[in-house]
Write a structure and sequence with these properties.
single chain, 16 helices, 0% strand, elongated, PPR_rpt, Pentatricopeptide repeat-containing protein At5g61990, mitochondrial, TPR-like_helical_dom_sf
Length: 264
């Protein structure tokens, strides 16, 4: 039997096992039993593997084991924690997310934009929009520049909370004050917010902006447009709007304006 004593090799084995949780735990346990100090990559692989396997508590325990040992304490960073945050979020264990967040603050973990994006996504999924604004202020204080995912997640959070004015304000701020360009996901998020609350005119504005920016629509975009028309009590217009956008033969915005008097 070959004796594995390299942290890098163990990390590769962990990645290879993927979702085989039992083997993952055995491999990592043997790795520690041999007194081979894991690398940051090895630790991260194990935490990510367990978190991806819907075992955030197991992943969290691995972090706690590392923090308990002087030689491995320094291996834990924001990236390691982010795997756990995302897994708790997907399981809707939002209280555990904030428990871990408080622990990170106490431990003076250096956050990254990815960490904040993960936390903001929790705000969007849980409806705790009141937590989003302090997080954005923290980012500013630490000099962390928001990226397209940050803006998209904040827009999603505001849309989920039926605060379309703030969602559009964030969208406008991104366009006016950054070099970032809205992508299909950002436009779809705004469209879905408009559809959810029957804000037809604003939805048309988003579609016009999307067309102007030459961002191609996806199948999801088409489904949201149909939802927008239906929620706005314009079911007949839904088919026409989807078909026109799909073909790209007319100006959708002009179509919407011309159709308002017909279907209202």
């Amino acid at each position: 039997m070959v004796s594995v004593r390299s942290a890098h090799t163990v990390g590769s084995i962990i990645r290879a096992y993927g979702a085989d949780q039992v083997r993952l735990e055995i491999t990592y346990g043997k790795h520690l039993a041999k007194n081979v100090i894991p690398s940051r990559i090895t630790l991260g692989c194990m935490v990510e593997a367990l978190a991806s396997n819907n075992d955030p508590e197991g992943a969290y325990d691995i972090i706690q084991q590392a923090l308990a040992e002087p030689q491995t304490k320094g291996l834990v960073n924001a990236v390691t924690y982010s795997s756990v945050l995302k897994s708790f979020n997907h399981q809707k264990s939002f209280h555990r997310v904030w428990d871990v967040y408080d622990e990170m603050i106490r431990g003076k973990v250096e956050f990254s934009v990815t960490t904040y994006n993960a936390l903001l996504d929790v705000c969007a999924r849980s409806g705790e929009i009141s937590r989003a604004e302090p997080l954005l202020k923290e980012m500013a204080v630490q000099g962390i520049t928001p990226n397209i995912i940050t803006y998209g997640t904040v827009i999603k959070a505001y849309c989920s909370a039926n605060r379309l004015d703030q969602a559009f304000a964030v969208f406008s701020d991104m366009q006016a004050n950054t070099d970032l360009h809205p992508d299909e996901v950002t436009y779809n998020t705004l469209l879905d917010g408009c559809a959810r609350y029957g804000s037809f005119d604003r939805g048309l504005e988003v579609m016009a902006d999307m067309k102007k920016a030459k961002v191609p629509p996806s199948n999801y975009t088409l489904s949201v447009i149909a939802k927008l028309a239906n929620r706005s009590k314009k079911p007949k217009l839904a088919f026409q709007m989807v078909e026109e956008l799909r073909r790209g033969t007319r100006e959708l915005f002009a179509l919407g304006i011309a159709s308002r008097n017909v279907f209202t």
